[in-house]
């Protein structure tokens, strides 16, 4: 049985590593082969093929439900019902629409929509909306999150922005939304949003600073309803029944174990119902059901058996769950605990088991965190040592009981007030811990180094007394294996995918320069959420130069976040900026790093901020790259006058391909081989302009666009070609 389940699980898990899905013909062939194998000695191969076929078929159904390419970027009137809890922010509301209908087109079954400065949206309402629809897409950078995979796993076929709308039917069955409003209205020491997250799984009301604190301390799982919360509620009920039975308080005619398991499962399902039965909650309830069944009838089997059964069950219900990081972390944490505790000889006192569980999970999940590119909290063992029992034994029982007793005048509110006070105190402590030890973004490791870390973690977690445990600690030093150094005279260029903005990283053998830092508007700071994490994962822990072309928010917005997160030797800017001190960009400034020449040009007579952009020319072994910021036609003429006859190999498209830039004279004089465009898909400025693209094509330029290809990389000085991040094929990534 275990062999078959393991083979089935491996077949289901193969999905996340496929560059393309097999055709229907190949799936039929594999299905027939699987059925043939099941009747022979190689039946485990049949199980593997069955799992693989089921996962691929399910994924293809999700891909077929995406928005048609012909509708990408179009605005349509449609009708649909709001499902789930809308996420409200200072700038608008984000919500999901189920079974939308339009007279003009066939739409996916589920849409994720944003309405900026729109009216209040409630779950269960039916709306008629004018929506600009987009195919599921997201920023794509090296070792960064893949939004397309997340949207596919949630079976969202399109995203969109609401332009106008009218309410057709009021809320029909939005009891969770009504309950959220009541929770947000109580007095809970300013932690009403955190209570809503604990009770309903709605974290949309948490401030960005709160999320940063939770991430830095490794306690995000405490405010996001997951297996821990479901298991806790079930454990409290199970423990209550077991305690009553032990001390004579349980009726003897009722066998306590079946009742304990049944009531624990009922409590877990009730909590899951309250939380909306999202995919993580479904996964947790299924895992719990398998564990309780094992406890009731199959304790003679290894503890890994229920874990394997739960894994297969979750993937059979939703094969796309393996595309979500939470799937790997939740199953990984349980597997690590079983690996460390199930086969130990002798017992530990409760406090010993609890303290050891924290560092066991921290070490055991380290390889998974590295593989998923997630921040690693060095303070997590210490923070969770306090936070987990505090949430489990104090905050959550008070919050759930207070929610249930809200109809009783005053009493439910008092319990929620106490829960809020407990949460406020916890956040005060976590804030101090986060300031003391921020989250660590590790450099992305080569495969061999990662395998050493994985092996080292498994060896370190072996029982005390097993020989060679010290070798495991030595293997963990692979975390700091230095990356490959560049040859002398070459520079690695990475134009990050930051939407409608610009951020370009230049690295020579021993130096790093960042040209612009991405956009920041309101609460959205891509310098903090994209640029800084990407630099850290690439092994950049300091910048020799941070060069800001000009003060527009799409270029300079992320600079403050980069300066907070990295050591910056020198800041140069085309214009003075109050947010940070910088040296002025002056024509004629230049330097040499590792055989690569850097030279600046600035036109102080420029009438606009765009024309006063600081322009950087990089030359490596005769190959030139021009980073032009947002200069327009006038500045292009001035640059040509100062650099007569100088050819450019690669050009960063001035002003994102605006019609006011990339003039005929400029392109003809510089004669670049290719152009790098940084812009957001379907941006409101119309970048790049059709006339500019036609001009590039007429001059034979290779056009590379972050909105189409993701982040763009180039090795200057090696006469190489530009590589887009989207060229690394995954079946869920859009080909167009």
From TrEMBL:
Keywords carried by this UniProt record: Cell membrane, Hydrolase, Membrane, Metal-binding, Transmembrane, Transmembrane helix, Zinc
Pfam families from the UniProt entry: Competence, DUF4131, Lactamase_B
Classification via InterPro entries: Beta-lactamase_class-B_CS (IPR001018), ComA-like_MBL (IPR035681), ComEC_N (IPR004477), Competence_ComEC/Rec2 (IPR004797), Competence_DNA_uptake (IPR052159), DUF4131 (IPR025405), Metallo-B-lactamas (IPR001279), RibonucZ/Hydroxyglut_hydro (IPR036866)
Lipid bilayer topology: Multi-pass membrane protein
Cofactor: Zn(2+)
CDD domains the record matches: ComA-like_MBL-fold
Protein name as catalogued: DNA internalization-related competence protein ComEC/Rec2
Organism: Pseudomonas shirazensis
């Amino acid at each position: 049985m275990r062999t078959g389940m393991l083979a089935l699980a491996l077949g289901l898990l193969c999905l996340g590593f496929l560059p393309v899905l097999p055709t229907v013909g190949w799936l039929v062939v594999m299905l027939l082969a699987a059925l043939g194998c099941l009747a022979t000695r190689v039946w485990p191969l049949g199980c593997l093929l069955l799992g693989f076929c089921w996962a691929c078929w399910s994924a293809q159904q999700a891909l077929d439900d995406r928005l048609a390419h012909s509708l990408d970027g179009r605005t349509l009137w449609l009708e649909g019902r709001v499902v789930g809890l809308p996420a409200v922010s200072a700038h608008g509301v984000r919500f999901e629409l189920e079974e939308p209908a339009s007279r003009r087109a066939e739409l996916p079954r589920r849409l994720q929509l944003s309405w900026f400065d729109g009216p209040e949206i409630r779950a269960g309402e039916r709306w008629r909306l004018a929506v600009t629809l987009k195919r599921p897409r997201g920023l794509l950078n090296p070792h960064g999150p893949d939004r397309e995979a997340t949207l596919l796993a949630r079976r969202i076929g399109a995203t969109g922005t609401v332009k106008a709308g009218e309410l057709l039917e009021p809320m029909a069955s939005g009891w969770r939304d009504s309950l959220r409003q009541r929770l947000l209205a109580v007095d809970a020491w300013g932690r009403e949003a955190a209570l809503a997250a604990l009770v309903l799984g709605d974290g949309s009301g948490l401030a960005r600073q709160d999320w940063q604190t939770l991430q830095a301390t490794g306690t995000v799982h405490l405010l996001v309803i997951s297996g821990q919360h479901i298991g806790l509620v079930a454990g409290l009920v199970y423990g209550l029944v077991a305690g009553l039975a032990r001390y004579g308080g349980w009726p003897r005619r009722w066998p306590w174990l079946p009742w304990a398991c049944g009531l624990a499962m009922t409590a877990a399902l009730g909590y899951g119902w309250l939380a909306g039965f999202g995919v993580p909650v479904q996964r947790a309830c299924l895992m719990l059901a398998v564990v309780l069944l094992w406890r009731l009838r199959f304790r003679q089997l290894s503890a890994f058996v229920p874990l394997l059964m739960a894994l297969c069950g979750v993937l059979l219900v939703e094969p796309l769950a393996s595309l979500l990081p939470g799937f790997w972390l939740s199953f990984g944490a349980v597997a690590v605990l079983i690996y460390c505790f199930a086969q130990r000889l002798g017992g530990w006192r409760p406090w010993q088991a609890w303290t050891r569980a924290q560092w066991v999970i921290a070490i055991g999940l380290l390889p998974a965190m590295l593989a998923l590119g997630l921040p690693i909290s060095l303070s997590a063992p210490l923070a969770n040592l306090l936070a987990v029992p505090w949430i489990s034994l104090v905050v959550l029982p008070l919050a759930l009981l207070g929610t249930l007793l809200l109809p009783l005048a005053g009493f439910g509110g008092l319990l929620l007030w106490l829960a809020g006070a407990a949460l406020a105190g916890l956040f005060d402590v976590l804030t101090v811990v986060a300031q003391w030890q921020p989250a660590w973004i590790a450099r992305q490791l080569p495969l061999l180094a990662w395998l050493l870390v994985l092996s080292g973690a498994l060896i370190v977690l072996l029982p005390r007394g097993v020989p060679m445990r010290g070798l495991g600690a030595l293997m963990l030093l692979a975390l700091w294996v230095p990356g490959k150094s560049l040859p002398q005279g070459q520079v690695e260029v990475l134009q990050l995918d930051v939407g409608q903005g610009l951020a370009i990283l230049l690295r020579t053998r021993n130096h790093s320069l960042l040209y612009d830092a991405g956009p920041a508007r309101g609460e959205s700071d891509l310098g903090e959420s994209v640029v800084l994490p990407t630099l850290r994962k690439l092994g950049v822990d300091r910048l020799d130069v941070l060069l800001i072309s000009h003060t527009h928010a799409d270029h300079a917005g992320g600079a403050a976040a980069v300066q907070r997160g990295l050591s910056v030797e020198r800041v140069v800017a085309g214009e003075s900026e109050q947010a940070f001190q910088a040296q002025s960009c002056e024509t004629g400034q230049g330097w040499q790093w590792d055989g690569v020449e850097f030279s600046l040009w600035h036109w102080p007579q420029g009438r606009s901020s765009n024309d006063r952009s600081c322009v950087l020319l990089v030359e490596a072994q005769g190959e030139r790259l021009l980073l032009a910021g947002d200069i327009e036609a006038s500045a292009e003429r001035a640059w040509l006058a100062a650099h007569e006859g100088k050819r450019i190999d690669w050009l960063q498209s001035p002003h994102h391909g605006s019609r006011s830039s990339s003039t005929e004279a400029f392109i003809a004089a510089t004669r670049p081989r290719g152009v790098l465009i940084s812009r957001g898909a379907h941006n409101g400025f119309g970048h790049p302009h059709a006339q500019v693209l036609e001009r590039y094509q007429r001059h034979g330029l290779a056009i590379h666009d972050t909105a189409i290809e993701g982040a763009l990389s180039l090795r200057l000085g090696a006469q190489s070609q530009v590589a887009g991040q989207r060229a690394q094929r995954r079946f869920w990534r859009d080909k167009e």
